[in-house]
Amino acid sequence: MTDTLFLQFYSRRKSTIYNLLNGFSDTYDLCRNHGDFVWMKDEPDSRHWYDYDRYAAKPLPISKGTIHVSALDVNHLYQCWVWACQHPDIHFVVGGPVASECDIESPGWDPAYVRVEDPDAIPPNLTLTGKSVEQWFGIDDFPGPWRLEIPTDIPAGSRIYFSYTLDNACFWRRCIYCNIGLHDLRHVRRRRKMDFEFKALDFEGTKLVRLNTGSIEPRLIRELFPALPCGNGFEYRTFMRAADAENRALKEAIIDCGGRFPDMVLGFGVEYPTKRMLAHVDKGFGPDEIIQSMEICSEGGIRANGNAIVGWNNLTQQDVKELESFMKRLPTGAFKNMQLRWLLAHPRTAIHDQYRGRPIRFGPFYEGFSVELDDPQMIELNRQSAEIFEHFASVKQYKLEGLENVRRHLQASNG
Ligand SMILES: C[S@@+](CC[C@H](N)C(=O)[O-])C[C@H]1O[C@@H](n2cnc3c(N)ncnc32)[C@H](O)[C@@H]1O
Ligand code: SF4
């Protein structure tokens, strides 16, 4: 093994899916020329996230040299920090989504997802960067074919989930709780040539391809969907805004596919689906457009997942009423899953200044907070909203996820 490694994490949590965080697939040959690849299982149990000793005990295959890491989640960032503290003879160069930067001109690392609370606690052998691998090595974006070597311990017949980058940003960038919109546009990479190299992947099993972007652009819906390889165990996942322009593009793509639309799950951020709340968070569409998206998906046989948020400090009784009428209008069976989340205030988002909560810290990093509500009326309106999502799960035939977590936050808000 050389003394330069490219480390990618992979994870298997509750589900039966192996999630490959294949951050080096776009630069596979480039990385190969500089060193070796390593796959590392990440900490599966979030109760042990930020347990220093547990992370320090994770062995590394070299004792000196350079390890480039593609980090997706905050726990990967923490893992790298712990390793860097433990292994002064290894230089860790950490990039990937969680290392994205707000302002690449600012001296040092200016992260979009976390705040560094104690810069002195960052050891000198830890370099955090929002640069892509190409920018790091000073070459053009997407220099060679996309490639993936699957970890050898994944049994044939499993379900694997991996990413095919469309871009590393979001074209919309406006939702007030979201930090994807904070990325410095000078770091944005956009795939121009769609060769779908993954179609040659030698793996017996279900291959879930994440068409990676914050939110897919209407142009790509039109161009990409009809061109995607179908069959052979390939399924696709991507996020689409439920706005008019995307709805029109989706309709056209369905027609273009002529009955052979790829096996796909589209993720929709319905957030809090009333006119006032969608305008408040700046989604750029209203509840009617979400209903329209669901009608298109239902008619086109496309599976849809919803993402919703509660924990708001500005709900009105009218919002709760409108949420209920939205649910009544929703086509039955359109959403397969509904993921309900409690509002998280990321540093630098507008939400962060409008709420309070217990800070989440790990090592020298600060991640924001889960919002806490103290007004009994707001707690009650959010409780009613969560109940509506729960009630309509059986009526509209979606699987509701995240309810326990939301209940925990409602309980904590009650003191
Ligand atoms: C990765 S985002 C992409 C969503 C997609 N771009 C869209 O807007 O439809 C997936 C979902 O995570 C949830 N989410 C994002 N930021 C959040 C936050 N700060 N607090 C709670 N949920 C959040 C939202 O429900 C969002 O729709
Ligand atoms: S559209 Fe999605 S990814 Fe883009 S800013 Fe809004 S929530 Fe974030």
Index terms:
415 residues, alpha/beta, 12 helices, 17 strands, globular, binds S-adenosylmethionine, binds iron/sulfur cluster
Question: Topology of this structure?
Answer:
Blueprint lengths: L3 E8 L5 E4 L7 H7 L1 E6 L10 H5 L8 E6 L3 H13 L3 E6 L19 E2 L9 E3 L4 H5 L21 E7 L40 E7 L5 H7 L9 E6 L4 H14 L6 E8 L3 H6 L6 H14 L2 E8 L6 H13 L5 E8 L1 E2 L4 H5 L4 E4 L2 E6 L5 H21 L2 E3 L1 H11 L2
Parallel strand pairs: 1-3, 1-4, 2-8, 4-5, 5-7, 8-9, 9-10, 10-11, 11-12, 12-13, 13-17
Antiparallel strand pairs: 1-2, 6-16, 14-16, 15-16
This protein binds S-adenosylmethionine and iron/sulfur cluster.
The site of iron/sulfur cluster has 12 residues, from loops.
In N-to-C order, the SSE pattern is EEHEHEHEEEHEEHEHEHHEHEEHEEHEH
- CATH arch. level architecture of the domain at 266-413: 2-Layer Sandwich
State the helicity in percent bands.
Answer: 25-40%
The geometry reads as globular
The total strand number stands at: 17
**Helix count, per DSSP?**
12
Assembly type of the chains comes to single chain
Note down, in words, how this protein is organized:
The protein is α/β, with parallel strands linked by helices and 415 residues long. Among the domains are: 4-137, no CATH class; 266-413, Transcription Regulator spoIIAA, CATH 3.30.750. 29% of the residues lie in helices and 23% in strands. The strands form 2 sheets. Strands 1, 2, 3, 4, 5, 7, 8, 9, 10, 11, 12, 13 and 17 form a 13-stranded mixed sheet that branches. Strands 6, 14, 15 and 16 form a 4-stranded antiparallel sheet that branches. β15 (359-362) and β16 form a beta hairpin. The protein is globular, with a radius of gyration of 22 Å. The mean pLDDT is 96. S-adenosylmethionine binds at residues 170, 177-178, 214-215, 239, 241, 268-269, 271, 307, 309, 341, 343-344, 346.
